[in-house]
Amino acid sequence: MNLLFSVIFLTGVFQVSSEKLQVSIYYEALCSDSVQFITKQLQPAYKLIGSNLEVDLVPYGKASQTQENGKWFFRCQHGPPECHGNILQACGLATDKSQAQKVDFVYCVMNQWDPSSDDAIEKCSGKLGLTSDAIFQCANSGEGEILLAKNGVQTHAVTPKITFIPTIVFNGVYSSANQNGAFSNFLKTACDQFHDKPKGCNA
Predict the structure, then answer these.
(1) Residue span of the signal peptide, if any (predicted)?
(2) Domain spanning 23-47+58-194 has what CATH number?
(3) What would the pLDDT profile of 154-182 be if each residue is shown by its tens digit?
(4) How far apart are CA 161 and CA 173, in angstroms?
C-alpha cells in the first residue's frame, strides 16, 4: 500500500515538473510596444522559466493581406519596411531550431536599431546557427510571403479580434486581464497560469 502511494506521489511530481504553458505572442517588427515587451519582459522571463513554456512567436501584427494570381500582397501598420521585417523574422522562426534559439533570435533582432533591416538579420542569424543568406533566400524566394500569410491567418483567427500589438495569449485563450498583466509583468502573469509554479517564478 505504501509502495503504491509512493508510485502515485512520484508520478504526480513528475507531471508537475513537466507542466508546460503555451504562449502565443502576436507582434510586428516596427512596433515600439513589441520591442519593449520582447526585450524587457519576454527575454528576461524566458531565462527563468523558458523550459516550462511553449512559445509561439507570430510576426504579423495589424496587417492585412490579399492574394492575386498566386502572389501575396501585404499592407503593414508601419509600412513596407515592417512587412519586410516581418517576413525576415517569419523565415528565421520557420527553421528547424530550438525554441531557445528562436527566442534569442527574435530578442536580438528586436533589440537592433532597425528590427526590419537586413543588417539586423546579419547580426542575429548566428543565434539560430545559420548564415543570414539562408534567411534572405527564404525571404526573397516567395517562401517568406507564404509564411507571413500563414501568420496572418493565425493572427486574424484570434478572438476577440486583435486591437493591440503585441497581444499575448495563454493556452489558446485570450483574456484582457492576462493581456494587461503580461504586457507589464510577463513573468508574474505567466507564473500565475501554472498549477504549481516553476522554480524560476520564485526568483
Answers:
(1) 1-18
(2) 3.40.30
(3) 999 999 999 999 999 999 999 999 999 99
(4) 12
